[in-house]
Amino acid sequence: MLIPETAAQVEARWPGWLAMLGVGGLMYALPSALTPGPDWLVLVLMAVLQAVTMVLHFRGRHRKAQRMSYVSLAVGTLAIVSSLGLLVSGIPSKRETPLELLSSATALWIANVLLFASWYWRLDAGGPYCRDLRESHTDGAFLFPQMTLDPALREEMGEGEWRPGFVDYLFLAFNTSTAFSPTDVPVLSRWAKGLMMLQSSVSLSALAILAARAVNIL
Questions:
Q1: pLDDT above 70 as % of the chain
Q2: How many CA atoms lie within 13 A of 25 on its CB side?
Q3: Pick from 61, 60, 79: which is nearest to 20 by CA?
Q4: Quick one: which of 215, 200, 41 has its CA closest to 112?
Q5: Measured between alpha carbons, how far is 188 from 139 in angstroms, rounded to an integer?
Q6: Which residues of the chain are modeled with pLDDT < 70?
Q7: CB 25 within 8 A of CB 110
Q8: Which terminal CB of the chain, N or C, has fewer other CB atoms within 10 Å?
Q9: C-alpha span between 207 and 109 (Å, rounded)
Q10: DSSP code at position 2
């Protein structure tokens, strides 16, 4: 049975869709030598995949929309890892100018945060659509602080029907890329731990490039 989403549910999807377009835009901004394929390839793929995902959601085809979102995330992940590899391999030959090196590493770091926030948002507890079907969020791959509160206290605080939104996962991804740990959100599942290790590796590589360049300038 096809169940079209309500206006509120559709509105809650926009941050995730915009984040993926942001990843495509950041990849487009990279120098041509650091882009896998034509400069516009990743941005166009992201735009098309997100448009298809939105249409499928509007029509109530949530399973197909979910699969399409996974394809988009996989494309973004491959693009970022490929660009980072090209950036690292080009450092000895000094193919990029200092400004290009710094701006590219920064763009990849930001894209990494947006991409993995989208991964967590899409995968945790079945994804946003499945989370919306439950009265409240009590089980998932991440243990948010709200989940540890006494039910009566949650009701008193007005958080009885609390569910994590995209910003919660963005905060988690940002912490992972800066502190290399989930800070206040423990990780419970193996797939989440694997993704966080990959995110930390990409972030560490980008920050190492920035640090190396800073030392070289000094």
A1: 88
A2: 8
A3: 79
A4: 200
A5: 10
A6: 1-12, 91-96, 211-218
A7: no
A8: N
A9: 8
A10: -
Round to whole Å and give the CA distance between 101 and 125. 38
Transcribe 82-151 into DSSP letters.
HHHHHHHHHTTTT-S-HHHHHHHHHHHHHHHHHHHHHHHHHHGGG-HHHHHTSSS---SSB--GGGGS-H
Give the DSSP H or E segment for 181: none
DSSP string, 29-90: TS-GGGSSSSTTHHHHHHHHHHHHHHHHHHTT-HHHHHHHHHHHHHHHHHHHHHHHHHHHHH
Q: How many helices (H) and strands (E) does the chain have?
A: 8, 0
Q: Are 117 and 172 in contact (CB under 8 A)?
A: yes
Residue found by looking up tokens 């499928």 in the block: 56
* Angstrom distance (rounded) from CA 172 to CA 192: 11
Residues for the chain: how many in total? 218
Closest-CA residue to 169 (of 148, 133, 196, 150)? 196
Token digits of residue 42: 């990743």
The distance between the two most distant Cα atoms of the chain, rounded to a whole number of Å, is: 63
In the DSSP assignment, the letter for residue 187 is: B
pLDDT digits (tens, 9 = 90+) for 29-88: 998 888 888 999 999 999 999 999 888 888 878 888 889 999 999 999 999 999 988 888
Task: Burial-class residue 2 by CB neighbours within 10 Å (0-12, 13-18, 19+).
Answer: exposed
- Its pTM surpasses 0.90: no
Closest by CA position to 204, among listed 92, 121, 88: 88
